Amino acid sequence: MRQRLANFSLEDVLNLPDDAPRVELRDGVMIVVPSPTFGHQDTANLLWLWFRQNAPKAYRASGAVGVALGSQDSFEPDALLLHAPVEKSNHFFLPSQVVIAVEVVSPGTKRRDRFEKPLEYGLAGIPHYWRIEQDPVHVYAYDLVNRQYELVADSDTELVLSAPFEITLPIRDITP
After folding, report:
1. Where is the Putative restriction endonuclease domain (predicted)?
2. pTM of model > 0.90
3. Residue 102 sits in which domain range?
4. Is the per-residue pLDDT at 48 higher than 80?
């Protein structure tokens, strides 16, 4: 009944049992998020590792934690780069704590990762959004301009960016 009323909140998600499925909130509706495939996780984990090894100390890399976009909206990006320090017990981070939100696109998430999520991340003020397409791996990097993302670089060989820090990411480093 509550699902039909669309009145779930972040507090409800935090109160789910430990063995509950992964969920995101969209306008108060819980959306079950299937576990990513091995290849999907491999790409996200390799990016997490690259961030851990290459990002300045002012940032922390994370994966599989939520971003609270409002009391009834949350997403769980595949990888995040956050402003340090980070509270280790957090299940959700505020958009102001997020530097880069990253989504690895799968066949079942194409529409959400290409259209819905960038729109919402942009409206929330997250400064950078990366979309990673698979087979072959290709990274699209966007910067926030006037609450909308503009493509600043894309590559299937080497991603070069000047923000949020000097980045030269060989795509082979995140290719399983």
Report:
1. 11-168
2. yes
3. 37-174
4. yes
